[in-house]
Amino acid sequence: MENNDFNLLQQEVQKIIDLIAAKNGKEANNKLVEISQQLDDFLDFSDDDADLIEISRYQVLLNQLHQKINELN
């Protein structure tokens, strides 16, 4: 994967964080589902160990954000 993919992913995760801060749980959850699907696609097509480690970090972060979103509801 390219660094550009991870940069875009980072920007999208920041949008989720911003939506959580604005207490907009529904939109944050929608964005989280979208990014989770994108991560799954990255995981399916990646075979580089460094990419797999980075993807797993994002998966952990998304799980934590999901918990925060559930706390809003």
Describe what this molecule looks like in 3D:
This protein has helices at residues 3-21, 25-45, 49-72. With 73 residues, it is an all-alpha fold. The protein is elongated, with a radius of gyration of 12 Å.
Key features of this structure:
elongated; 0% strand; 73 residues; mainly alpha
Total count of helical runs of at least 4 residues: 3
User: How far is it from the N-terminal to the C-terminal residue, by CA?
Assistant: 35 Å
Residue fraction in strands: under 5%
Which shape, going by the Cα principal axes? elongated
Number of strands: 0
State the low-pLDDT regions, or none: none
Q: Which structural class do the helices and strands define?
A: mainly alpha
Rg over CA atoms: 12 Å
Succession of helices and strands:
HHH
**Rounded average pLDDT:** 94
Gist of the model:
The chain is mainly α. The protein has three helices and no strands. The longest helix is centred in the last third of the chain and has 24 residues.
SSE map:
Blueprint: H1 3-21, H2 25-45, H3 49-72
